[in-house]
Amino acid sequence: xxxxxxxxxxxxxxxxxxxxxxxxxxxxxxxxxxxxxxxxxxxxxxxxxxxxxxxxxxxxxxxxxxxxxxxxxxxxxxxxxxxxxxxxxxxxxxxxxxxxxxxxxxxxxxxxxxxxxxxxxxxxxxxxxxxxxxxxxxxxxxxxxxxxxxxxxxxxxxxxxxxxxxxxxxxxxxxxxxxxxxxxxxxxxxxxxxxxxxxxxxxxxxxxxxxxxxxxxxxxxxxxxxxxxxxxxxxxxxxxxxxxxxxxxxxxxxxxxxxxxxxxxxxxxxxxxxxxxxxxxxxxxxxxxxxxxxxxxxxxxxxxxxxxx
Length: 309
Ligand SMILES: C[S@@+](CC[C@H](N)C(=O)[O-])C[C@H]1O[C@@H](n2cnc3c(N)ncnc32)[C@H](O)[C@@H]1O
Hints:
Elements: H1 10-16, E1 26-29, H2 36-44, E2 49-54, H3 57-66, E3 74-78, H4 81-86, E4 93-99, H5 104-108, H6 134-140, H7 143-154, H8 159-172, H9 178-188, H10 191-194, H11 202-213, H12 219-229, E5 230-240, H13 243-256, E6 277-279, H14 289-294, E7 302-308
Helix pairs in contact: 7-8, 7-11, 8-9, 12-13
Bound molecules: S-adenosylmethionine.
């Protein structure tokens, strides 16, 4: 079997994700994907057990195959990570990894319209049991809702223009494929935006994917609940790929590390707040130039790590 996704910041993840005990440590990989990081961790710690979560059962089949030699040290779980940690009652955890977003597999092999470089049905669901598809979003949302979501989740400056073009196009014919949508976007943006560093459809496609999979709303509760599941000395690493994700990770970590929750006008601290974690990465870790060259998606990756105290 071929694996198309190269794990980002793998060396750095390994440097930070050190279990507090070598005695049968337990890790949850919230976003196993094809299992690049999990494979590295299982190889590094012979007593480690990894619960490998993924909401996409197709990519999970690849991870299962890749991990077949590790026997029951790899336990695949088909679930959204926020659902998994909602009422968590499993073992105390030594390590948690969250490598946000989607895998190269989704662009190249899934056939679900994540990439505008291919002509595929506009679906974009990571979990095929979900109700909402990208086709439903582009064909049924109001022009205003479309513009708002493209602006909010894509940080796209031509969001209004793109939403208008989508609504005009769907008035003539239902928008069904990734190429159709790409053409609509390409044709409606100003000339100088057509040939910039980013393809003009990139941000809209990102926004649709985030909307369809409700990606951002799942992060904060997962970090908080997974932190509570960590044993003292246990560590959590989160890799994000755009500012919307990184902002949530950064602020959630800060909240968990807070030593005082008194109102700002208080002269003395009376709250007795006990921080749950310490932050191990003052600034996010980013990929080296060397990694950027061999693994271009790593360019936008940011790694932040906390330790339970
Ligand atoms: C960036 S890839 C992970 C790559 C992996 N670390 C590796 O080294 O191969 C993210 C994976 O997480 C899954 N995923 C994204 N959001 C998820 C969520 N909320 N719950 C569970 N899995 C999720 C995606 O289906 C995808 O397979």
